[in-house]
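Supplementary notes (optional reading)

For those who missed the lab, this is the record we used. Protein: diguanylate cyclase. Length: 346 residues.
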Amino acid sequence: MEKLDPEPLDHCYGTTLEEVERTLRFALDIVSDGIWDWNIRTNHVKRSPGWYSMLGYPQDGLPEDVDTWKSVIHPGDYERVMRNFQAYVSGESQIYAEDYRCRCRDGSYLWVSDHGRFVEFDEDGRPTRMIGAHRDIHRRKMASLELQRKNEELLALNRRLESLVAERTEELRRTNEALAQQVATAMRLSETDPLTQVSNRRHFERALHGEWQRFQRHGHATALLMFDLDHFKRINDQYGHQIGDRALVAVSRSVRGALREEDCFARWGGEEFIALLPETDLESALRLAERLRQRVPQADPGLPRALTASFSVAAMQAGEGIESLLKRLDDGLYRAKLRRDCIEAC
C-alpha cells in the first residue's frame, strides 16, 4: 500500500499536525457529504457531522466503530461491499470505491458513494489509519435505476412484440400452409377419379394438350395407350357393382404400378382407361401394352372371375390434331374389342 509521508504533516509551513488535519477535514467537508476516519489499531471510527446529517442521525448519536458502519449497509448490498472492502484491506485491490445503500434514521435507505484509502502505516508498512468520504448520490442513482427500469421494460416490451410478431408470423405461416394444403387437396380431388384414385379425364386432357404442344415443337416420340375391360357389364350384372368397383380399383392399381412416374394414367370413363407415354415410340408402347394385358388377369385373384382387357396403341404424328389422334385410338380400341383380350396398333 502507498504510504503517506508523515513529515509534511508534522510541520508544514509552520502549522501543527492538528491544524493540518483540521484543514483536511474542512476540505473533505466541502467535497463530501460525510467523511469517516478509521483508526485501525483501536477500531475507533470518527465521523464528520455531515455524515450524521446526511443519514438523519444526531451528531455522534451512533457508536464510533466499524460495526456501526456495517449495521447501516443495506442487506442486499452488504456481501458485495464487504467483499470489495476486504480485497482492499488485504491488498488484493488497489482501490476501495463502492456505491451502496445506507439505512437512515427513519428506516429509509439512501444511496451513497463511498471512497477510502490508507493514510498512515506502522514501521512494518502495515496500515494503521484509513480515511474515506461518503457522497449522497441518491437522486442520481434513483434516476439511473429508473432509466434502467424503463429500458428493461422497453426491452421486455420489444421482446413481447417480437414474440407476438413471431407468433403471428408462425400462425400466418400455418394458415397459409393449411390453405395451400387445402388448395392442393382440392386440386388433386378435381383431377382424380374418386373410385380408382388415378387421374380423371379432365386432368388427362390437360396433360395431353401440353404433351401435344411439346411434340409439335420438338417432335419427341410420344404414344397413347387405351384399354377397356372385357365383358365388364356382365360382372356388374352377375356379381353386383361392389365387385365391379373392386375390379376397377384392382386393375388401376396394377397398371399404375407398371408405369413410369412421368406417364399420365387416367380413367377415361366407365371401364375404359388411357395412358399418355412421353418419350415412347409405337414399338415400345406395344411392348408395354402386352405386359399390361398379361397383368390384368392377375390384378385381383380373389375376384369371382378372371379379367381380361382389349388394348389400342397409337403414336403422335406430325400435323395431326388431338381430336384426330383420339379418334384413331378409339377406332383401334373398337376393333380390338371385336376380338377381345388383344392389342390393336393404329
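If you only remember one thing from this example: The longest strand covers residues 109-121.
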